[in-house]
Amino acid sequence: MKVSENLSITFLVEKPEMSKDGRVPIIVRVTLNGQRTEISLGARIFPEQWDKISSWVKGKSPDAMLLNSQITQTKAKLEKHFFLLTTQHEFVSADMIRRSYKGKLVMPGNPDEPDEKKTFMQAVEFEITRLKEKQEKGLRAKSTITKWESTRTKLEAFFLHKYKKADIPMEIIRPNFAEDMLHYFMVEQDIDHNTAMKYIRNTKQVLTTATGRWIKSNPIRDFRCSYKQPERDVLTIQEIWKIYKKSLIKRMDQVRDVFLFSCFTGLAYKEVYNLTLNDIVIGNDGGRWIKINRVKTGNPEDVPLLPIPEAIIEKYRDDKRCLHSNRLLPVNSNVKYNAYLKELADLCGISKKLTTHIARHTFATTVTLENDVPIETVSKMLGHRSIRTTQIYARITKKKISNDMKALRKKLFFGGKLRLEEQEDDSHKVAI
Predict the structure, then answer these.
(1) Any idea what DSSP says for residue 215?
(2) Spatial distance between the Cα atoms of 276 and 370, rounded to a whole number of angstroms
(3) Is the pLDDT score of 200 beyond 60?
(4) For 168-186, what is the mean pLDDT?
(5) Domains of the chain, first to last
(6) Contact at 8 Å (CB) between 216 and 208?
(7) Residue 108's pLDDT is what?
(8) Is 0.85 topped by the overall pTM?
(9) How far apart are CA 117 and CA 244, in angstroms?
(10) Residue 202: pLDDT above 60?
């Protein structure tokens, strides 16, 4: 398939390279100005599955659709590398396209600078690949990869808007790059401030990783990613009680139990979903604890069980659904669970929007801090790396302020007067 007057990108199968099971590799042939190079797609099919005319895998099976999607994406990436190389060099060869696509293009340059050059999107792919490797080892959550893939999409849109290209050399980035990104995300794409900052934070990470590898320094290193603290709803103890006492049908009763379990343990949805009996251990105090690592960060969460979550665990000890799925509780899919929580709020007369996050925030604020559990302890139970993160989750409520001031009043005052401190000479005690 011709991309330009001199460039052709063609997909074909290599029959001489047939494996023992009769499958052949799919390769992409790049031809530029009469020069040719080939790249393996990293996939094999049976020869009869290949449509030679359309250069496409036949059929509508999931495997066929996945391979055809890979073919489309590979072609688009090769085109991007070609057009980018034409902006950097007077002469471009087919082999240069192959090496650029593989991330192995070495260009002569200033001896004081790194020799190997990468485009920005190549650096993004490098970052995502490393995160995927960590995810495979259980060191990162799958949601982290999804967020990074979203960052990649947003960056491509920004590059097209600002540079009229889907990819750029990192050397052309200047300190105003982050400000331009922020303006584009918030004004052109109507993205809220905090989400835009998360995209820029990831961009900074890409450039930090690239520093010393492919660029001398991070041009947006000094840009500060600031976040506006959103209002986070939490339930009051009275609202928790309304949910706890409400008479419900079995389906909603199970949803209520899972929600209350989170309210009294602080566990996020994914942690509750994955819980098994093996995650319940006997602590040094002789009581039962939940001992797990957070899916999102890998940080440990050690939570002593209060009576309500203990009772909920016992309630489902012999539940057929739980036994069949080897789970501690009957947790629905995230989509169903959130839909049922909306229904639960309506049934219980709660005006606040019940979500998987509000339970965690409720544990941090209403259940613990308002009852004088130190924030250091709350932070440890929530699996946070820093107390600063806990301070975001656990707002200081008016009830907490009232409780603290009552304790202070009791400590310092008696009968409306400041308590007298013992003086060396009792005769010099003075009421203030």
Answers:
(1) B
(2) 30
(3) yes
(4) 92
(5) 1-105 (no CATH), 112-228 (1.10.150), 237-396 (1.10.443.10)
(6) no
(7) 41
(8) no
(9) 60
(10) yes
- Please, where are the H alpha helices in 184-303? 193-210, 237-245, 250-263, 269-274
Tell me the pLDDT tens digit for each residue of 42-97.
Answer: 888 998 999 988 889 998 888 888 888 889 989 998 988 888 888 777 678 888 88
**Nearest-CA neighbor of 119 among 249, 210, 233?**
210
Residue with tokens 């499958």: 23
Among candidates 275, 264, 251, 278, which has minimal Cα distance to 311?
264
- Which DSSP category does 211 fall into? B
Torsion over CA: 38, 43, 49, 53 (sign): negative
The confidence score (pLDDT) of residue 382 equals: 87
Q: How many CA atoms lie within 13 A of 344 on its CB side?
A: 28
**Backbone dihedral angles phi then psi of residue 106, each to the nearest 5 degrees:** -105, 125
> Looking at per-residue confidence, does 385 or 64 come out higher?
64
Residue in 244, 247, 284, 248 with CA at minimum distance from that of residue 264: 244
Structure tokens at 389: 């993160």
Separation of alpha carbons 48 and 151, rounded Å: 39
Structure tokens, 316: 């489902």
- Residue 322 has phi, psi (to 5 degrees) of -70, -40
Compute the residue count for the chain: 432
Average pLDDT of span 190-212: 94
Q: In the beta sheet, which residues pair with residue 50? A: 57
Measured CA to CA in angstroms, residue 101 lies from 113, 159, 171, 386, 412 at distances of 22, 19, 18, 40, 72
